[in-house]
Structures are given as structure tokens and as C-alpha cells.
Amino acid sequence: MTTIQHIQEAAIQPLEQAKSLPFAAYTDPAVLSAEIEHIFLKDWVFVCMEGEVREPGDYFAMTLASEPIMVMRSDDGELRALSNTCRHRGTVILDEGAGQVDRYITCPYHAWAYTKEGALKAIPYNKLIAVDRSEHQLVKYAVGIWNGLVFVNLDRNATPLSGRLAGINKYLQLMQPGTFDQHSPGETEVWQTNWKLAMENAMESYHLFKVHENTLETYSPTRDAYYIAGSSEWTLTGGATKRKRGLIEKIFGGSHNELYDHYVLVSLPPSFVGIISYGSFGWLSAHPIDANTTQVRSGTTYTDRGLDENDETSEFTKAFFQEDKDMCERVQTGMSSKLSKGGKLVDMERVVVDFHQFLGTRLGDLPQTALFEDEAAALWKNAT
Ligand code: FES
Ligand SMILES: [Fe+2]
After folding, report:
1. Which pLDDT score is estimated for 307?
2. Where do the domains of the chain lie?
3. Given 10, 89, 298, 305, which is the most exposed site by the fewest CB atoms within 10 A?
4. Is the peptide bond before 270 cis (omega within 30 degrees of 0)?
5. Atom 4 (ligand 1): residue with closest C-alpha?
6. How many CB atoms within 10 Å of residue 91?
7. For the chain, how big is the Rg over CA atoms in Å?
8. What is the mean pLDDT of each run of 10 residues along the chain (384 residues)?
9. Amino acid 279: pLDDT
10. CB of 253 within 8 A of CB of 378?
11. Which residues contact 103 (CB under 8 A, 6 or more apart)?
12. pTM above 0.90, yes or no
């Protein structure tokens, strides 16, 4: 059996039988190639926060599945996803990260210039050679926005993002992440770990009491974490937080729903995990560089009625990120073992089982799993 067949076999197991994936799933370059082909080139992938691309000319550029791409706000206010490789000889046009262009997107090599919509506008020093401008537009991709977060799909036949996230919004009415109009980009780091380990670690709350004993556990303890709802497509988990006095009143006014003292953790495979609590939506995004190396980015959207972006907050975040990085790299070292293997996933790792089923649907032909709702789902759905 190939590693991919092993992954499928693991993914098909019901929760009670679910196990860790074979270690080779986290080290084998053939698995990563299949993931790029069937997941990162086919599915909706988180790219940036809408606040980073608010004004005409604002862009965010990154490499997605080896494809240099940009998300660009044009003068008509539309957000577009375009290829970031020049149609002349393929140079990467814009530097990675957030930035701004003035009138045109100009290639640094021979200065071919494109409009913010991706149309070829100007070709310097060309009199004799006919260049059909319509044949030389920047390649376009599907773009979608969900609660102030921008997603791109590189597949020509992409179906809308809203369908991909169908059903999720009704659990999030109370927290209103769509109203968080402030943003702060966090860090971009390189972790020596497979992208799936970074994702699995970000989505489960089982490890908080041990890995984050002096950080996250003091705020959102493992024992108070619970599953809300999920499937192979997305998962919501939650947990009680140790209430920050005064903050709830500041953010939500007079109404004191008990659930305001909880967080919701949103897992959107392949590459987004975010936590919504007290008027902020902090996120982590994991992109494979190679089978053993992952680019991890973080950031936050928030409402200025809530979160104060003070040093204490960012020091706290830095501290638990370092704890996660160290643990993910340590697990990756374990993945090189050929003689040992992983074991059972426990109740608190149901979200990891969902993620494995996501992998099984994309890498094989397993059908999407049906939405499972745990007891807390009713509370969240009826919270408003
Ligand atoms: S490669 Fe871009 S202008 Fe020549
Ligand atoms: Fe963690």
C-alpha cells in the first residue's frame, strides 16, 4: 500500500477507531505532491485579511502551491486574485507580503505594465513586434471573502466559497466576527515541521494543559474545551475562558450571554485555524514549503471596542507560538521513525479526525462526511 492509501484507510475510520496517520504522511515528498495537486491547487485557501487590501492599489502577494499570486484591490473597489508572474518572461512582479501600487502593476524586468485588473497596458520600446494585449493578461483566479478574511481558489472550475463554508455562519452569530474592522498582521515564521502537524496542533485543545501550562492554559483550560460541530469540510470547537473583567461590557454593551465567556476555534482546512473571543479573531495559516518545512503566518482581526493590542497581548501570543513551534518540530523528529507507529486519537481530538477525513476526501474518493453536532451546537446556534 502507498502512503496515500494508508491515509485514506485511516481517514475512513469512525471516531472510535481513529488513529494517527502513518508517519510517512508527514515526511514523504510524494504525499506532499499529491496534497499540492489535489488540495492546494483545487480548494479554497486563506490568503490575507481584507483590511490588508482595503484601498485601491493595496495588494497582498504570496506563493500558494508554488504559484506566485497576488490579491489586488482595483480602482472600482473590486478585489481580484491574479497571477504574480509576468506574461512576458515570467518574472515575479510584486514582492511577497502586503504593499501598494500606484497606477500600474509594473514588472521589474522590462517594465511591462498591467492595470490593477490584470490587463496589459504598456510595453516599453516596442514598435515592430505585434503583441496582442488580450493574449497577455495576468492569469485570474477565484477570490472569496468570509468574515473579513480573503480566500483564493486556483482551480478554474472553483465553486463559490460560500458553498465550501455552508452551514458555518449560524454558529457564529453571537461573536459577529464579520464586524471586526481592525487588523494587525502578526509574524511569518518557518517551522521545521510538516504543514499537517502545524494544522493538527493549532486545531486541538488537548495539549493546552501540558504544552501551554503557563500561557494558554491559564486563559482557556483544556478541561473546559468542547466540540461544537464539524465535518470533513470545517470544524468548530469551543471552550470556556477565564473571564476578563470589564471587557465583555465594553464590547457587547449590556447584554451578558454566558457564551461571551467562551471562545470558538474555527478550523478551515487546508490551511486556516482561527480563534474568536472577546471581539478578536486571531488566526494561524500553514503553507507547505517542503514535506518537512512549513511557513506559518499569524494575524488578528478585531473590533476596537474590544482587544487592546498592548504589549502584554503580543508577548503572550509570542510565548505560546514558540511553545507550539517547539512541539511541532519535536513531533516532526518523531515522524522519521520507521520502526514505531502512532496510536489512538482520543475524544478531545475529534477535530483532528475531521481533518484526516478532509484529507481522505481530497486525496482519495471518500465522500464528504455529514455534519456532526455535539451538545454545545444547539447553544451556539440559538445564542442570539
Ligand atoms: S519578464 Fe516582465 S517585463 Fe519582461
Ligand atoms: Fe498550541
Report:
1. 52
2. 3-39+166-381, 45-153
3. 89
4. yes
5. 110
6. 15
7. 22
8. 88 90 96 97 98 97 96 96 98 97 97 98 92 96 98 97 96 93 92 98 97 93 96 97 70 74 96 93 97 96 68 79 97 97 95 96 90 95 88
9. 87
10. no
11. none
12. yes
Q: Domain spanning 45-153: which CATH class is it, in words?
A: mainly beta
| Residue 136 CB–ligand 1 contact under 6 Å | no
Give SS3 for 8. Answer: helix
Choosing from 83, 86, 114, 121 the residue with most ligand 1 atoms within 8 A of its CB, the one to mutate for a pocket test is 86
All three cell numbers of 83? 497571477
Residue with cell 455552508: 166
Look up the CATH superfamily of 3-39+166-381: Naphthalene 1,2-dioxygenase Alpha Subunit; Chain A, domain 1 (3.90.380.10)
Which residues are close to ligand 2, an ion, with C-beta < 5 A? 324
Q: What is the crossing angle of helices 195-203 and 350-363, to 10°? A: 140
Do 75 and 54 form a contact (C-beta atoms < 8 A)?
Answer: no
Supply 113's cell numbers. Answer: 505594465
- Please give the C-alpha separations between residue 35 and each of 194, 208, 215, 286, 376, in angstroms, as whole numbers: 12, 28, 33, 13, 33
Helices (H), the chain: 3-11, 29-35, 161-164, 195-203, 208-211, 216-219, 247-252, 311-334, 350-363, 376-381
